[in-house]
Design goal:
The chain is 32% helix and 15% strand. By secondary structure, it is of the alpha/beta class.
Length: 209
C-alpha cells in the first residue's frame, strides 16, 4: 500500500511511503479488536467502589422485635439490610478489573484496526515536523490544512515530542501517542490516523516485520 507524504500545510511533498500489507492489508479479526478494547477499558477502571457490609454499618445490635408472630420479615437489628440506613446485601467491593490478553491477540487487534482505517482511506502520512514552541494555534492550523478540523484525530509519533504534545493537549478531539503506546482503542476511536514519516519504520519493527 503506497501513500503520498504531505506536509503540515496540507501540500503533497512529492515523496511516497510504502505501508506494509502485513499490517495495513490483512483479514480483520473483529473478535480480537473486541477483546483488546475490552481489556483497555477494563484496565482504566479504578475498581474503588465500596458499599458497607453489616459489620461495618454503625448502629445498635439490639433486637428490634420478637422473632415470630409479627407477620413481617425477621429484623435482627437496625443494621439489617431490610431497613432504611442498614447495610447493603452483596454490595460492590473493591476489585481489580484487569485481565490478561496474549501478545499475539493484541497485535492482531491493532493490525485489524489499522486495516479498517486503510480500507476507509483514513490514514495519512505527514512529513517530519516540529513546533519551535508549544502553541495550540499551530496545531489548529495543522488540522485545518489537512481538512480534519471536525474529526477525531490520532497523531502517531516515533518518539515523545513535548512541543507537539503540549500544542495538542487542549484540543478535545486530538490525541498524540508514540508508536510504543499505540492502542487498538485509540485507533478505532479516531476518525483519522496521522502517521509522521519517521514513525513507519518503528511501526514495522514493533510488529517484527
Amino acid at each position: 500500500m503506497e501513500l503520498n507524504i504531505i506536509n503540515i500545510a496540507g501540500e503533497d511533498t512529492g515523496k511516497k511511503v510504502t505501508l506494509n500489507d502485513s499490517i495495513f492489508k490483512i483479514e480483520p479479526n473483529d473478535h480480537a479488536i473486541y477483546l483488546d478494547v475490552k481489556q483497555y477499558l477494563a484496565n482504566k477502571r479504578q475498581g474503588t467502589h465500596k458499599a458497607k457490609e453489616k459489620s461495618e454499618v454503625s448502629g445498635s445490635t439490639r433486637k428490634l422485635k420478637r422473632q415470630k408472630g409479627t407477620g413481617t420479615a425477621r429484623a435482627g437489628s437496625i443494621k439489617s439490610p431490610l431497613l432504611r440506613g442498614g447495610a447493603r446485601v452483596f454490595g460492590p467491593q473493591p476489585r481489580d478489573y484487569s485481565f490478561k490478553l496474549n501478545k499475539k491477540v493484541k497485535q492482531l487487534a491493532r493490525k485489524s484496526a489499522l486495516t479498517y482505517k486503510a480500507i476507509d482511506n483514513n490514514i495519512k502520512v505527514l512529513e517530519n515536523f516540529n513546533f519551535d514552541v508549544p502553541k495550540t494555534k499551530e496545531f489548529v492550523n495543522l488540522r485545518n490544512n489537512l481538512d480534519v478540523k471536525d474529526k477525531k484525530v490520532l497523531l502517531v509519533l516515533s518518539e515523545q515530542n513535548k512541543s507537539i504534545y503540549l500544542s495538542s493537549r487542549n484540543l478535545e478531539d486530538v490525541k498524540v501517542v508514540t508508536i510504543s503506546d499505540l492502542a487498538t482503542y485509540d485507533i478505532m476511536n479516531a476518525s483519522v490516523v496521522l502517521f509522521v514519516e519517521n514513525s513507519i519504520e518503528p511501526l514495522n519493527k514493533m510488529f517484527r516485520i
